[in-house]
Amino acid sequence: MEGLGTHLIAELFNCNEEVLNDVRKVEEVMMAAAELSKATIIQPFFHKFSPYGISGVVVIAESHLTIHTWPEHGYAAVDVFTCGDCDFQIAMDHIKNELEAERCSIFQFQRGILPEKSNFKDVISFMEVENAGYIE
């Protein structure tokens, strides 16, 4: 069953804590991921919290890439949502490598499954069974 877009939700563990707390580096990583995926970048915005942690978004014509970091735990939460022909897997590989994550769990969902193409029961089943996949 096809939707309007693909949404990856990634949990990155045991990342480089210094990288996770460097707002310039995190922005560079996310912008490069968007570029590598062939997304059309609209605008980035990144904010560094005190004493640590970063939240950021790269708005792309095809949707967005977001990141939230917890350097004190070596953890980053990343979303990549695309509704175009972007290569989201190359974006995630780049982010994982640049943050030096030792472990990464990625959940992939189809978004925007239109009612005229499926009944509500099928959408729920699809999301719970077929589409809540685990990739490592």
Short description:
By secondary structure, this protein is of the alpha+beta class. 29% of the residues lie in helices and 38% in strands.
Description:
The protein is α+β, with helices and mostly antiparallel strands. The chain has one domain: S-adenosylmethionine decarboxylase (4-Layer Sandwich), CATH 3.60.90.10. Helix content is 29%, strand content 38%. The protein has four helices and seven strands; from the N terminus they run βααββββαβαβ. A seven-stranded antiparallel sheet has the order 2-3-4-5-1-6-7. The protein starts with a strand and ends with a strand. The C terminus is likely disordered.
Head-to-tail CA distance between termini: 23 Å
- How many domains, as an integer? 1
- Annotated CATH topology: S-adenosylmethionine decarboxylase
Major sheet characteristics: 7 strands, antiparallel
Write down the Rg. 16 Å
Number of strands: 7
CATH class: Alpha Beta
- Low confidence ranges: 122-136
pLDDT averaged residue by residue: 87
Number of helical stretches of at least 4 residues:
4
> Judging from the principal axes of the Cα atoms, what is the shape?
globular
* CATH homologous superfamily grouping: S-adenosylmethionine decarboxylase
Strand content: 35-45%
CATH architecture: 4-Layer Sandwich
Oligomer: single chain
Strand sequence of the main sheet, in spatial order?
2-3-4-5-1-6-7
The structural class is alpha+beta
| H/E element order | EHHEEEEHEHE
